[in-house]
Amino acid sequence: MGKQKGDGGRSKNRPSSSSLAASLLPSASSAAAVGFGGYVGSARLDTSISGDDSAPFLDVDSEVAQHLRRLARKDPVTKLKALQALATLFKQKAGKDIALIIPQWAFEYKRLLMDYNREVRRATHETMTNLVVAVGRDLAPHLKSLMGPWWFSQFDPVSEVSLAAKRSLQAAFPAQEKRLDAFILCTVEIFQYLEENLKLTPQSLSDKAVALDELEDMYHQAIASTLLALATLIDVFFSLRSETSGFEDIVAEPRNASKARATAISFAEKLFSDHKYFLDFLKSENPAVRSAAYSTLKSFIKSIPHVINDENMRTIAAAVLGAFQEKDPACHSSMWDAVLLFSKKFPESWAMINVQKNFLSRFWNFLRQQCFGSQQVSYPALVLFLDTVPSKLAGEQFFLDFFRNLWDGRNPLRSTVADRLAFFKAFKECYLFALQNASRCKFFICICALSICLIVHLRIQLFGSLCWN
User: Fold this and answer.
1) Most buried of 90, 126, 273, 299 (most Cβ within 10 A)?
2) Mean predicted confidence (pLDDT) in 70-85
3) Spatial contact of 64 and 103, defined as CB atoms under 8 Å apart
């Protein structure tokens, strides 16, 4: 799923959420994909049909069948040509005829979404768009087999590919309300697909000889996209009218929404337990996986907080409150989201960790290192974070150490103007916060002492630094 030869750098514009993948049609029936061109369910069967590309599939137009067979080739050029030919044929042929190949297409579609070549994935969605427009309501019997991978595809790491995936959904289900209705209808199938994805290994992604680095890249992208799909799925069921859900214009809760929410909770609880609170993903060598794992944790903390209990809170607290060892700035936005929400939602968790080891040493280093390059994201979050730190911890020494390490992290010679402005704005906000919340100290004398110490200490440091710089 990475860049092909000759490509520029991989796009970093991974979508954090998208319009929900759902069906326009509320049909609850799901026709079995049996007897169409040697396919049963999600597997291709060996039949007596000739292996020649020109041999027709059973009940399927021979020209369409020929191109469908070519989608299984390893060569991306062959797959691209086959997809382009199918996209053209879907525009030319009758919808009833095209509907016959949906079972075969569904099988190849799932595989193509994991393809290493981004152009193949983009062309797959363009072909999907033409197919759903052509077949119309005949898509309904096959909707449940498609919805899981369709939802997953919305979170492709390449922006052009994810946009193509969104366009295919919008072409099939232009009405927001209908998309949500059918999305609710396919709740089980979507969760099942995501659950299977989280069990993937690099070796299970391909049945052919693929370079190890390509397999690793495909695996990391698949896991990251799956985690983001899961996080947004949870957000959707519990925040139907939020900005991130994609359904903020819907006034009334759809029918069966409560049932779907209960199903979502059941699946989510199982996934949270089976994957050890997603903490292993936080240790991944791939930053996209780590960032997606933070997003997933945030969604659980926000919408299903009861999964965090006395049995696992110590482990989760150590990982979340100790997250300041994360050095990749691409992860810091989702990291801060998880940290801020967790600290606010579970203030008692601070008492369950070794504060010096798990938090303070890492946090001070994070500040001294200019937040490892995420100044524009991290500096504005500091004052919000201070507000969640328990009063027993945020005493005089804590604030003095905080400002000392924050000041030590400035680097006027290597910082941009925007970074310097963000630094001084954050410094001012945190300084005022500390003065206004000096009452967190136990005695009045501590309040006065803290205020005086902050003013004197910081002015001396500021004056000395300006003289040297």
Assistant:
1) 299
2) 94
3) no
Sign of the dihedral through C-alpha 450, 454, 457, 460: negative
Stated as kind and residue range, the H or E segment containing 324 is: none
3-class state of residue 239 by DSSP: coil
Query: Torsion angle of alpha carbons 326, 327, 332, 336, nearest 10°?
Result: 40
Rounded Cα gap, residues 445 and 273, in angstroms: 48
Six-digit token string for 258: 């409560």
**In angstroms, rounded to a whole number, what is the distance separating the alpha carbons of residues 412 and 427?**
15
Closest C-alpha to 198, from 175, 225, 178: 225
Nearest to 80 by CA among 129, 119, 111, 125: 119
**pLDDT, the chain, mean:** 83
Report the greatest alpha carbon distance in the chain: 91
Helix (H) or strand (E) holding 323: none
* Backbone region of residue 347 per phi and psi (left: phi > 0; alpha: psi in -120 to 50; beta: other values): alpha
Domain ranges within the chain, ordered by starting residue? 308-469
Which tokens go with 271? 């996934």
**Is the pLDDT confidence value at 17 over 70?**
no
Judge whether 409 and 370 are in contact, CB under 8 Å: yes
| Closest CA relative to residue 59, chosen from 98, 106, 111 | 98
Residue 439 has pLDDT above 80, yes or no: no
Q: What is the pTM of this model?
A: 0.82
pLDDT at 120 over 60: yes
pLDDT of 417 higher than 80:
yes
Per-residue DSSP letters for 418-469?
Answer: HHHHHHHHHHHHHHHHHHHTGGGSSSHHHHHHHHHHHHHHHHHHHHHHHHH-
DSSP letter at 80 equals H
Residue 360: Cβ within 10 Å count: 17
Determine the Cα–Cα distance for residues 388 and 408; give it in Å rounded to an integer: 23
What CA–CA distance (Å, rounded) separates 255 from 184?
Answer: 9
Return the pLDDT at 6: 39
Q: How far is CA 380 from the centre of its chain?
A: 23
**Residue listed under structure tokens 């001012």:** 428
Q: CB under 8 Å to 42, separation ≥6 — which residues?
A: 33, 106, 107, 110, 145
Separation of alpha carbons 96 and 113, rounded Å:
25
Q: What's CA 133's distance to the chain center, in Å?
A: 28
- Evaluate if residue 443 carries a pLDDT over 80: no
